[in-house]
Design brief:
Helices cover 27% and strands 34% of the residues. With 198 residues, it is α+β, with helices and mostly antiparallel strands. The longest helix has 27 residues.
């Protein structure tokens, strides 16, 4: 390249600056955690014409399941516990509404798109009184596994409540036989109630 030495020097500096910016941009993209859309799964199909089918709460192929939505929330807040999840309809489609209990007992509510896994909303939330002092001994992940082992299907809601002096996980959803529920002791993991039907 011929020309004035200052122009050559400015051109070299410009090339160096562009190289540095592209390296920084590539490394920050590589460091950004990505979450792939779940692979196709085959959840229990609802009975045709049943309430479960009408509710549209059964997990469909390619959607984020209850457990995957919990995992997404815990990736954002790794030292926390999910204490409530519910599938709900919002203006733009269906979302997982998730309440997280942080170590300092503060709460955060997340709305996660069922299709994409994108966090659509994040705001402070009230933590259920049952878990203000400490998170439940049986985590929501363990409770989901117990519920699905007890009654195979798809869980659309799981929350923590008090029943007869016991703190329990209440799971609701759909099975191949219709609506389902499973109540699990949050201390021991014992199934204390279950049912299937319309």
């Amino acid at each position: 390249m011929s020309g004035h030495p200052l122009r050559r020097h400015a051109f070299v500096l410009l090339l160096v600056a562009l190289a540095v910016l592209s390296v920084v941009a590539c490394s920050s993209i590589a460091d950004t955690p990505t979450i792939d859309k779940p692979s196709a799964q085959s959840p229990a199909e609802p009975v045709e014409g049943s309430q479960a089918e009408d509710d549209a709460e059964v997990e469909r192929e390619g959607e984020f399941t209850t457990l995957e939505a919990v995992s997404l929330a815990l990736e954002l807040y790794p030292d926390s516990a999910v204490v409530e999840i519910e599938r709900d309809h919002e203006k733009g489609g269906e979302v997982w509404e998730i309440v997280i209990r942080h170590q300092d007992a503060r709460g955060t509510e997340l709305h996660i798109d069922v299709q994409t896994g994108d966090v659509l909303k994040e705001r402070p939330a009230r933590v259920p009184s049952e878990v203000r002092a400490a998170p439940p001994r049986i985590s929501i992940e363990e409770a989901i596994a117990i519920a699905l082992e007890t009654v195979p299907g798809a869980i659309s809601e799981m929350e923590i409540e008090t029943q007869g002096g016991r703190v329990v996980w209440e799971a609701e959803g759909a099975s191949s036989s219709g609506r389902m529920f499973v109540h699990i002791d949050a201390h021991s993991g014992e199934v204390i109630a279950q049912g299937v039907g319309n």
